[in-house]
């Protein structure tokens, strides 16, 4: 497996043990961490600020012996890396140029010293006195330096040098992604250099830092890293000084973070007496997709750009330093309460606004005893409570047909009773039987005509009854069904307002369970919701089995909804190609679905998604609740007659080669 072929790049942040002003010791520790990272096939590795000397050297930075020893150690690292051409390493050191000392990051590889990036913003307040020793690198933009690594009596000549040095616009380009660098305080400024680097094409930002610990500071520092990674649509790799720095006036914890577009991928153990190394696989393609969609993401023309090409090897191991969430629409446990409440409130307020705008005070809603209609009813009840309208103005209509089972019917009626809404029961059996007779269709032929006639009859009842009471039809269909076209055109596909329009099936289940667990006080109501949750997904359009149980289970026909929701999220949120989706699904559902099963349902997903766009092109209004939405008035505009051939061909090609 080559993760780079699928758009990923492996990076690491390290905080090695060190001794202040002992470059030999520090270099050996750095070498050990490099070897450890190379065993894990890390491609770019970042160390803290001034990692060759230690950050807390104070006035020792003025000593020529320390300056030259740092350069000597730098050259030793270059020679060390000549035998390890697969990894790029970023270290920090003091660098004397003419009469000024700069705090710089050095980018090293088997090719040599690729470039220097000086620190732009030099702190000189509170416990920091860096301007006592260092000069801002602003005036070095676009220059070069020369280092004679054989003599170690290092010559640095800004006029005739060969190694580029720049505080702005220096982009390091690899075959798998590009990166830029800023140093510690740069991140804390109103306009960090990383903002410009990202707009000039850097997919990753590395920050060499020496941030001391104060009560509450780590939380704020972490928020800065997360926010800047999100603001830049980039990965942000942060490595800070730790064990071994002087504790005369400050303590350093070795805080290291790897964030990607606002999400934390890896975090080090703070205050560790060992050298710390954290690793993550960055999704470069996903980052670039977000930038592609952002029409304001343009390079600032007032900053010069220097591109440095550099080599790294492929990652070939089967191990991934990244977790793929198999249920991307479901919020993580620590955030689930707040996030689910937000989804429910968005649905509720969307419906409430539509009722206020139209002046309508009554609704009809089809209640089947399934999850979708259950969630829609719960939302509708909350909207009516919010508006101060009586729940009796909600007309829950259950419409038993040929496939209705006792379990779903009983749950539908019991749910409506427990919520105090008006209950109507209108059987569709006689009407559909007459309709099939009228069009000359054999009632024993259980084909698509047999199924869809039932769905359309139910919709007609809802629409006509809404007209009768001057009401509004609340739709119950979910986003997963819209993606697959698992709805009858102008049947359950249609309503006057669809509250579940952008809620996928996996999230529907989660929301109903959340309401049962946290918003339902009556034990009887809670039991009804739990039984609905345990009921197989089914439109119940085919006759029940002899034992009275559901015969038509949706997932037997279209495949597992959790797979389809994963496919949908990756395709729409990140624009992923079929091969990437298959690869990530294999990682996310390892041990649950075989490669053959994933391929089977992914092919079906593409076929149905492309073939059923015509239903989405005329779907009813409904509130957007998350980052993915299929409304033609919101996030997704697609011709109804687009060809699926390219997507299927890529899967077939992978199937043959794989």
Automatic annotation (TrEMBL):
GO cellular component, one term: cytoplasm
Catalysed reactions, semicolon-separated: deamido-NAD(+) + L-glutamine + ATP + H2O = L-glutamate + AMP + diphosphate + NAD(+) + H(+)
EC number: 6.3.5.1
Chain ranges of the CN hydrolase domain: 9-284
Binding residue positions for ATP: 366-373, 476
Any GO molecular function: ATP binding
Pfam families in UniProt: CN_hydrolase, NAD_synthase
GO BP, sorted A to Z: NAD+ biosynthetic process
InterPro entries the record matches: C-N_Hydrolase, C-N_Hydrolase_sf, Gln-dep_NAD_synthase, NAD+_synth_C, NAD/GMP_synthase, NAD_synthase, Rossmann-like_a/b/a_fold
CDD domains reported in the protein's UniProt record: GAT_Gln-NAD-synth (cd07570), NAD_synthase (cd00553)
Binding locations of deamido-NAD(+): 452, 481, 486-489, 615
Pathway the protein acts in: Cofactor biosynthesis; NAD(+) biosynthesis; NAD(+) from deamido-NAD(+) (L-Gln route): step 1/1
Keyword tags: ATP-binding, Ligase, NAD, Nucleotide-binding
Function: Catalyzes the ATP-dependent amidation of deamido-NAD to form NAD. Uses L-glutamine as a nitrogen source.
Protein name: Glutamine-dependent NAD(+) synthetase
Originating species: Proteiniphilum saccharofermentans
